[in-house]
Write a structure and sequence with these properties.
The complex is a heterodimer of chains A (293) and B (618). By secondary structure, chain A is mainly α. Chain A has 12 helices and 2 strands; from the N terminus they run ααααββαααααααα. Chain A has a two-stranded antiparallel sheet with strand order 1-2. Chain B has 2 domains: 232 residues, no CATH class; 267 residues, 3-Layer(aba) Sandwich (Rossmann fold), CATH 3.40.50.
Chain lengths: 293, 618
């Protein structure tokens, strides 16, 4: 029983972090209809950047998010202006190919800069735990999840309580309509992409404490984040949170009761099953634009 | 993406420079191992090119023709390789004999994967294929009892001597690459291939004109995977060692994508050309620098550059240059066809069918009852009921947003209703797929005209299928009686001279007429016309009315959504008026015009019917 409770708590904490990792991906898809396969590469990049600063300056990785977030915002803005905006007119699949090219290039660049070795950021609390009775909860996991909750709340407030958020949501729901009422779709798209990438700044810093980072580890994160947004409903932020919590728990349960090797398979199976049975996911909606030109 | 013109129209009697180069390249490839038997390195590079060539030509069928980009294509190579690798443990025959089994396994898994895309579209398919590839890799790694796990599988060494060397692999893979290219060439010129291109250009439209998209997509996936599976078997024997990471590698999939894009997506030889460029590029970047990062960096950069700057690929770009040079020499011959209505040699529907369909019971041809369609919080169609008599010309009018187009979408099967029933010729059709409705004689046009832009006008008109038959799939795309019939129908709408033009070059009004001709190929009983006069040259409106009337005289039933009141009131013999998702009035054009409900909801209080009729006659 303790093991089960422990597993569930850990699963939820992991799920919270996953929600952070996937939030940028779902945000960008919602507004632009682009599956940014390079998002996990951004996460790994921010993680390695955190590692670099932490190992040189010794500043706490969670504090470093104050640096990595604006840096990734800038990276996102540049990538949008330089690459993504130029292929907006072509098909959705071609934009996947483009962002995959970016992901591979980033992986190569990271390999050249940081070599293909595993890196971990190890602040003093990384191997400490909170104890509550028989339960043991790693501190890093709690702090990581806390950071994720803060970012997701900020993102939610930004989307629902500000003019910019309203512009983003309107551009997501009906680009033509938003354009007609005077919203600069190009700028909104660039901002969304930059904000989405900025979430990878915090995400990467959190990732660097919780997981060993390696340029090629982007692939496992591609499957995880895609699985989450597919399950939650592509483009929906609340959906990503729900999807992440479910998959975090499912993965942890699989790892505890079956084997860690098979735990990542959960994501592949969920992707295949959801897209087959309920392509719109848990919280996505099917709208008329799906059908009519 | 560009369309390879159907090969029938491409063949020219003269010998081109390209074909001479082609034969020379072929001879050089065949002769190479014989002339340089000891050059193992270059033989190996060529073998890698052939393997990538097989994969890229296969991928071309699903991505280039059908428009579904897959990032899991290399899984078929792994499936073939593992099938052969694991079988050599138990069956002691030459792996060459087992390679076809690799193809069969790949085909079976492809059919399974293909059946998953029966319901999904674009981005979902990319994601599915990525997940599929990773799943295969994970199974390979995590089930060591069956697959050897990360230790991989070792195959027996070839029994032949050094003097033969790589030749068996070299020639068999070269042959397989040519076979794969031949297969794509053949597919492209069949009805099956044209259906695939139709799906790529506009999937809903393809379904509406009788292309059974689900079967097409499954078959396309199988065709794209089967030869890769065979190649995988041979490749495994060549490598003598396979492991899950190498065999189910997403980077191999990305190489397939890159090769095809570079050469020309949707062309016949583009993927092969691309393979000849990508493999050497890999060799150079791998060889120059030891660090793996550089290789990936260059690879990603090239992929992005191709998507951004060479999206059509080399072959279509070069062909475009050549055509432009030729076009300046031969002035484009443009004959404006004189509007006229010719009599069709064969009536649109056979007389026997017509008389039986018009049997004296007087039952309506189309009956819609209590139809409801909700989009989120909006109820677009809210309890819509009406009936359409056989042989009638029924106008469906109403303000914008009253649900007219949605009703058309529900009747033609583009969407499923939340509630209500649709009966066509006495049969409930509300659960049928769009193509099944087309086979029963239900045709529709689209408000914004949806021809397949990059197919020619002629190909557009012959694309519809009256029924699904397996034996029709391998038939020539444009052939014999059908081509004659299509020409006749094009002549009927006054556009016979436009047959060889790509559809995107037509004006909006011309597109509407071609779309009508396209529908007539279905030999429909009922045509739903969505704004036939909307947004077109007023001179063509009268012509469209005449065409509709002529077809109606031959027994065709019409339901017409139209905002041009003079036209629709003059043309139709009965009217349905919709507002807020339901029919609020019906009757003769005269009765409807004086109905206070209609004046209030749509026509307006200052509606002057005499002026409207004058407008129609003037």
């Amino acid at each position: 029983m303790t093991l089960l409770v422990q597993t569930l708590i850990l699963g939820l904490l992991i799920g919270g972090v996953y929600a952070l990792f996937a939030s940028g991906l779902t945000l960008v898809f919602g507004v632009m209809g682009i599956v940014n396969v390079a998002h996990p590469a951004f996460l790994v990049l921010a993680g390695l950047f955190t590692y670099e600063l932490w190992s040189r300056l010794g500043i706490d990785p969670l504090l470093l998010t104050l640096v990595t977030t604006p840096v990734m915002f800038l990276v996102g803005w540049l990538v949008y202006k330089g690459l993504v905006s130029r292929v907006r007119s072509s098909s959705a699949s071609m934009s996947v190919v483009l962002t995959f090219g970016l992901a591979i290039m980033l992986e190569g660049a990271m390999g050249m800069t940081w070599k293909n070795v595993f890196r971990s950021v190890t602040p003093p609390y990384f191997n400490q735990s909170f104890h509550a009775g028989a339960l043991v909860v790693p501190k890093a996991q709690v702090f990581g999840c806390g950071a994720a909750v803060v970012v997701l709340l900020l993102l939610y407030l930004l989307l629902t309580r500000t003019w910019m958020g309203r512009a983003i949501r309107s551009a997501s729901e009906n680009p033509e309509g938003a354009f007609l009422v005077g919203i600069d779709i190009g700028t909104v798209a660039a901002l969304t992409f930059a904000i989405g990438t900025a979430t990878a700044g915090v995400g990467g810093s959190v990732m660097s404490i919780l997981y060993p980072i390696f340029p090629a580890s982007q692939y496992v994160w591609i499957s995880r984040t895609l699985g989450i947004i597919v399950l939650g409903g592509m483009g929906s932020l609340p959906g990503a949170v729900v999807g992440a919590l479910i998959l975090g728990v499912a993965e942890t349960l699989t790892a505890t009761y079956i084997s860690t090797q098979w735990s990542v398979v959960v994501f592949y199976v969920v992707i295949l099953a959801v897209l087959l049975i309920r392509p719109q996911g848990l919280m996505g909606s099917r709208v008329r634009k799906d059908v009519v030109a | 993406m560009t369309v390879e013109p159907a090969p029938t129209t491409l063949r020219r009697p003269r010998v081109s420079v390209a074909s001479v180069l082609f034969v020379l390249a072929g001879v050089a490839l065949v002769a190479f191992p014989l002339l340089r038997p000891g050059d193992q390195y270059h033989q190996t590079v060529l073998i890698l090119i052939f393997v990538l060539g097989v994969m890229a030509t296969g991928w071309n069928v699903i991505a280039g023709f059908t428009g579904y980009v897959s990032l899991g294509q290399s899984a078929f190579l792994g499936l073939g390789a593992y099938t052969v690798g694991l079988l050599t443990r138990v069956v002691h025959v030459s792996p060459f004999l087992l390679a076809p089994l690799g193809g069969i396994v790949a085909a079976l898994v492809a059919a399974l994967l293909g059946s998953t895309i029966m319901r999904t579209r674009e981005h979902a398919y990319v994601i599915i294929t990525i997940a599929f590839l990773f799943l295969m890799q994970a199974i390979g790694l995590n089930a060591p009892r069956f697959t050897g796990g990360s230790n991989g599988v070792t195959l027996p060494l070839p029994p032949w001597g050094l003097n033969i060397g790589n030749m068996p692999f070299y020639y068999s893979l070269l042959a397989l690459m040519l076979l794969s290219t031949l297969m794509t060439w053949w597919i492209r010129r069949t009805k099956f291939g044209m259906g695939l291109v139709a799906i790529r250009e506009d999937e809903d439209k393809a379904a509406a004109i009788g292309v059974r998209t689900s079967v097409y997509k499954v078959l396309a996936t199988v065709a794209s995977g089967v030869l890769i599976g065979v190649a995988g078997g041979i490749y495994a024997y060549f490598l003598t060692f396979i492991d899950p990471r190498g065999m189910f590698d997403i980077l191999v999939s990305v190489q397939i994508v890159l090769a095809t894009l570079v050469g020309g997506l949707g062309t016949i030889w583009g993927p092969v050309l691309g393979a000849f460029l990508v493999v050497p590029m890999n060799e150079v970047t791998n060889g120059l620098v030891a660090a793996q990062g550089v290789h990936l960096f260059v690879f990603g950069l090239v992929l992005m550059a191709v998507v951004m700057f060479l999206p059509r690929g080399i072959i279509p770009t070069v062909r475009g240059w050549l055509e432009r040079r030729r076009a300046s020499a031969v002035a484009f011959e443009r004959r404006q066809s004189v509007p006229r209505v010719v009599e069709l040699s064969a009536p649109v529907r056979s007389t026997a069918e017509r008389s039986s369909a018009r049997g004296g019971d007087g039952a309506p041809l189309l009956e819609v009852d209590g139809l409801v369609k909700r989009f989120g919080g909006i109820t677009a169609v809210d309890g819509c009921s009406f009936a359409v008599p056989e042989g009638g010309l029924t106008g469906l009018i109403g303000p914008n947003g009253s649900g007219k187009t949605t009703v058309f979408n529900l009747i033609s099967g583009m969407m499923r209703a939340n509630a209500g029933s649709i009966r066509f010729a006495g049969e409930a059709i509300e659960t049928l797929q769009p193509w099944d409705r087309a086979y029963r004689g239900l045709g529709r046009t689209f408000q914004s005209t949806r021809l397949f832009p990059r197919l020619t006008v002629m190909e557009n008109v012959v694309a519809p299928l009256r029924r699904f038959q397996w034996r029709l799939l391998p038939a020539d795309a444009v052939s014999g009686p059908e081509a004659r019939r299509a020409l006749e129908l094009l002549d009927f709408v006054g556009l016979a001279d436009f047959g060889p033009q790509p559809a995107w070059r037509l004006s909006f009004g011309q597109k509407k007429l071609v779309e009508l001709a396209q529908l007539l190929m279905l030999e429909p009983r009922l045509i739903l016309l969505d704004e036939p006069a909307g947004g077109i040259n007023p001179g063509l409106i009268e012509r469209i009315s005449e065409t509709i009337r002529a077809l109606n005289k031959q027994g065709l039933t019409f339901v017409i959504v139209e905002h041009n009141m003079p036209m629709v009131l003059e043309l139709c013999d009965s009217m349905l008026v919709m507002a807020s998702g339901r029919v609020i009035a019906e009757g003769s054009p005269d009765a409807v015009q004086s109905n206070p409900l209609v004046l209030d909801a749509y026509l307006g209080e200052d509606w002057n019917r005499d002026a409207a009729l004058e407008g129609a006659q003037g």
